[in-house]
Amino acid sequence: xxxxxxxxxxxxxxxxxxxxxxxxxxxxxxxxxxxxxxxxxxxxxxxxxxxxxxxxxxxxxxxxxxxxxxxxxxxxxxxxxxxxxxxxxxxxxxxxxxxxxxxxxxxxxxxxxxxxxxxxxxxxxxxxxxxxxxxxxxxxxxxxxxxxxxxxxxxxxxxxxxxxxxxxxxxxxxxxxxxxxxxxxxxxxxxxxxxxxxxxxxxxxxxxxxxxxxxxxxxxxxxxxxxxxxxxxxxxxxxxxxxxxxxxx
Length: 249
Ligand SMILES: Nc1ncnc2c1ncn2[C@@H]1O[C@H](COP(=O)(O)OP(=O)(O)OP(=O)(O)O)[C@@H](O)[C@H]1O
Known about the structure:
The structure is a single chain. The protein is of the alpha/beta class. The chain has one domain: P-loop containing nucleotide triphosphate hydrolases (Rossmann fold, 3-Layer(aba) Sandwich), CATH 3.40.50.300. Helices cover 33% and strands 24% of the residues. A hairpin with a 2-residue loop joins β9 and β10. α4 runs parallel beside α5. The relative contact order is 0.18.
């Protein structure tokens, strides 16, 4: 599904502050695999995600998504395959617009799975039904502006809007880092369910080792722009939570 071959990214090349952020990574991510990336600060996790998303273009190496060579494609040209959710719940939606209007915008931008813009009442009903699947009671608040919702509610809706389009890959860059523990748990469970329901290939970056342990079908650890641990689903199943803490010495 995603084939990353000997990818390199250097920032500030040739200057005193040169950083080899990604240092020759080769990684094959299978369709419907849910890959979790852990690693200390500055180990290159976000740069790797940016390379997959196309917001950073590599100095060397190739990235193939679904048999398409996207190595030089800018991020907006990869949106047919990729949806991305960021740390900040505010970044994915328009605060002043209602939940319904945010879904309308998302529907115009893409062709959401199971949503036809159609006549107004029909669209509204479909949005309500989709939101009801989150189990947060937000289906009764669709006329409320996005800005009045909590970070967790907003992030769950952002996730739903992201995965409803035709994307096959979901990139999650510390999606719960700005949330309280309870909201973080709801958002992670929502993400996990949506990934399974929509049969997505997903990559999650997290500093939360409990989430890294509980979610995903494969886990890698990065250090200094390289992968230093890689456990597939079979090996991950035998992993103990304490083993993960040991990775960070
Ligand atoms: N646009 C940039 N310009 C210069 N240096 C950068 C840029 N983006 C990242 N870096 C550097 O590349 C290295 C890897 O950064 P990256 O954000 O990928 O790490 P990370 O593992 O995601 O870290 P964190 O866990 O702190 O988010 C760091 O040293 C960072 O300062």
